[in-house]
Amino acid sequence: MTRPAIPAAPLRTAADGYRKGEETRARILDVALTAFGNSGFASVTTRQIAKEAGVNLPALTYYFGNKRGLYLACAHAIVARYREGMGAVAEVSYAALGDPLTPDAARTLLKRLFAALARFLLAAPEAQNPSLFVQREIASPGPAFEILYAELWRPGIELATNLIIRTANRRLTETEAQVRAILMISSLTGFLSGLPVIARTAGKADYTALVIAALDGQIDALARSD
Amino acid sequence: MTRPAIPAAPLRTAADGYRKGEETRARILDVALTAFGNSGFASVTTRQIAKEAGVNLPALTYYFGNKRGLYLACAHAIVARYREGMGAVAEVSYAALGDPLTPDAARTLLKRLFAALARFLLAAPEAQNPSLFVQREIASPGPAFEILYAELWRPGIELATNLIIRTANRRLTETEAQVRAILMISSLTGFLSGLPVIARTAGKADYTALVIAALDGQIDALARSD
DNA sequence: TTGAATTTATATCAGTTGATATATATGAAC
DNA sequence: GTTCATATATATCAACTGATATAAATTCAA
Fold first, then answer.
1. Residues 6 or more apart whose Cβ sits within 8 Å of residue B121
2. Is A53 in the same domain as A80?
3. Which nucleotide is nearest to A7 (CA to C1')?
4. Max CA separation in chain A (angstroms)
5. Entry pTM
6. pLDDT tens for residues B61-111?
7. By residue range, what is the domain housing residue A24?
8. Do residue B81 and residue B59 come from a single domain?
9. How far apart are CA A108 and CA A118, in angstroms?
10. Mean per-residue pLDDT for B112-131?
């Protein structure tokens, strides 16, 4: 009983105690994030991850308990990354939803929100796209479904839905707005999935600007009463 | 050498010769389509498919050579299903692209195309969504990438792109139009991925009508010159 | 420097996977 | 009814997978 099932490593910070372990842990997590995100839970073997991270097999068990634990750690890391990249912008919208909101103001917030999301997602290195991980887990629930659904998917769609309702000047059902919210978010994540394929034929344009322009157009269309 | 590596079954029609084999083959393919579509190539074991289809393991080898062959057969079946469901509508648009086309006419065609796609995709039983299979293969290329890319993805996006260019009355770059095409198609496929999750909280509304309405709104927005 | 906790490495296990050799059953043609 | 291609079933293999027991090495604090 010299070694606990899941060591206390995650509980320590990088500052105190053994630092090298933290680096190894981070390296494994980074590799796993990319691998799982691109290929899914079952397609990736623990040996692949270990090899690519430059560690041996038991290291994964040591740091993350088991494959599932590593996968869950990836999910938590993704949530943290989203919070870091989108938390501020989302918070502004959340706060604004408390008070009454003119359609114009809501529209501005919605545009900012989606522009931020587009920038956040398109900024990530192409191989390490967090949205692919999330998409996969939503499409066919795996070990990390609950986390990603509760921490990202649901609140994200709820926020967008509420903003859309306040943006449209004609009355809009909760369901109608929700459908539009999901369509807009999905368009972004789906675009990212296709991006590597697009870059095959078309050159590398500044897709961020183009995507934001297209989304702005969609948001403008919400307010129109036809 | 009594049995060929891949038997001639696929070459025969259901009408002549041994019919029972055709039915077994179809049953396996149907199960595989659902399983692969929902969980991906690696997550599904041949034993699962065999059990669910009510056959024993070597039957898969007998009819499809190997797991990869079965997966490819699924991809071909999906292409055929798309052709069956969308071929006519797509053909009309293709034909119209030959002649000059007013923005209004292009818009009508585009609306028809996307309405047909929405109906086609949302009509499929929720568990057997062909777009999930395609999405997965595009996002992380597997054995069936080339087929699905060449037969579905590329032509679909090309068609939508050309119609969008003719719909927008202000000049639109090929790339700009392509981005919009991918965003619109992705929104649909992404919506489908999320549908089972949505049905969790919200009841089963008539999403088809709502989705088509939203897409129509997006298409109308294309023509506006802001 | 010593000593204990942390971190890495070796060897190996039991279960699963895709695949095949082999045998038997079924159906159609003559 | 005999015959041959078609179709299904049994048993088994080699490779791979996730995981662990075990030991060595490293790191930091005292």
1. B129, B130, B131, B188, B189, B192
2. no
3. C6
4. 70
5. 0.90
6. 999 999 999 999 999 999 999 999 999 999 999 999 998 899 999 999 999
7. 9-65
8. no
9. 15
10. 92
- Residue-wise pLDDT for A119-143, tens only, equals 999 998 877 889 999 999 999 999 9
The distance of Cα A176 from the centroid of its chain, to the nearest Å, equals 24
Q: Phi/psi zone of residue A203: left (φ > 0), alpha (ψ -120 to 50 degrees), beta?
A: beta
Q: How many CB atoms lie within 10 A of CB A31?
A: 21
Tell me the C-alpha distance between A57 and A49, whole Å.
9
- The number of distinct structural domains making up chain B is 2
Determine if strand C comes within 7 Å of the CB of A222: no
Cβ atoms of A54 and A26 closer than 8 Å: no
- Interface mutation target, options A186, A192, A216, chain B, most CBs of B under 10 Å: A186
Q: Provide the token pair at B51.
A: 């059990």
* Predicted confidence band of residue A18 (pLDDT cuts 50, 70, 90): low
**Cα–Cα distances in angstroms (integers) from residue A130 to residues A16, A35, A36, in the given order:** 30, 11, 10
A117-132 as b/e: b if 16+ CB within 10 A? bbbbbbebeeebbbbb
| Chain B nearest CA to A8, separation (Å) | 32
- Residues B121, B44: one domain? no
